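Incident log, structure service

09:12 report received: a user says their structure output differs between two submissions of the same chain.
09:20 pulled the input from the user's history:
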Amino acid sequence: MRLLLLAAVFAVGFLQPVQAGLNATTAKAVGSRFQAGWVNGAVNVVILTTILLVMGLRTGSGLPGVDSLRTVPWWAYLAGVIGASVVVIHLTAAPQLGAGLLVAIFVGGMVAGSLACDFWGFPGYSAIRIEGPRLLGLGLVAAGAVLVARPWAT
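09:34 re-ran on a clean worker, output below:
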């Protein structure tokens, strides 16, 4: 099961630059990156609503109720703000940076952020010590981003 989960995460990661390019194409077609972000969000809502409705028919656990939404801490809704920010930043940066640099920098930020979440035991995570090998991994990601950027080649 873990191998399947790792493969799914890899596949979604592989598709991330594809999504950024598709969103940039949508932005050109509809006129702005914010409109393209809205289209992206609307497609998300349609797909997730359909999945939840089908799950509700099968298991009785469909769309969340108002009472359960009231129990969510206010700061947990910031995940939606982060998601919208990812879409808008990708829409803005993808055409200018190219897929390789966009993703290299994005992954660097993800690794740095994930180490911070682990270190402080951010909600949803257990606290994990940050030791030398993990910091070395972050450094290697940064080195990879520099190699992808190839600043000496421009």
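09:41 both user submissions now match this output. Likely a transient worker issue. Closing.
09:42 reviewer note: Helices lie at 2-30, 33-59, 66-70, 78-120, 132-149. Residues 55 and 152 are 52 Å apart (CA to CA).
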